[in-house]
Structure formats: structure tokens, C-alpha cells
Amino acid sequence: MATGTTRCPRNVWPPTRKKTLTSRPPSATTNPRAGLPAPMFDVGFAELFLLSIIGLLVLGPERLPAVARTVGGFVRKARASWYTLKTSVEAELAEADVREPLKTAREELDAVSRQVTDLGREASAGMDPTPRKADKPSPPPGD
Question: What GO terms are given for molecular function (predicted)?
């Protein structure tokens, strides 16, 4: 090895990543627990503890339980409204999923019905609808 030169090891731990403007932390895109979208308000225990301490300092120990009950009631009503909205939308989507095949089947049935009607008209047009009178037999020769 030449003197005065140093080499950087190739395997450096922890691996470094270039930060770009578009890179996001993983918790902002997916929930690591189930691979589902992350909740809107990802609040952990530390954040709840900090909010409760601030609430205790601002409201005082006398008013904090009443305010907590009121906020809990609002949250409960919001969840109930969200659940009702969600179930109604899901019911409408399920109904639309059922209606679409029925509509398609009805259209196909109408098309087949039209074809059968047209074929019946063509068949009846090919026949002469007026009955023919039986030709009178010609008299035998010699009478």
C-alpha cells in the first residue's frame, strides 16, 4: 500500500442513505404492523402523556375530568357517525355490484327476445297468411 493514502471500508455500518426531497419516513406511507395505510393521527403513549400534562396545567385538576368526558363524547359521536357513513357507503356499493350483472343479463335477454321476435316475423312472412282455395278439379276428359 502506498504511503499517505487511506482506504474507506466498503461495508460501513449503519448503511447511509442519501436523503432526497421526495423521501418519506416509512410510517408516513404504511403501518408497519399490518402493511395497511397509517392512521391519520399516529399518536403514541409519549404524545398522550405530554398532552395530558399540558391539559392538567392549563385546565387544572377540577375542570380536566369534565373536559375529558366532553371530548370523549365528541369522539364517540364522531366514530358512530363515521361507522354509519361507512356502512351505508358499503351497502350502496354492494347494491351497485348486484345491479350491474342484473342489468347486463336484462340487456342480453332483451337482445335475444328481439332476435326471436325478428326470426318469428321472418318465418311468418315466408308463409302466405291467406289460405288458398283448393283448385276445383278439372272435369275428366270425355264428359
Answer: protein transmembrane transporter activity
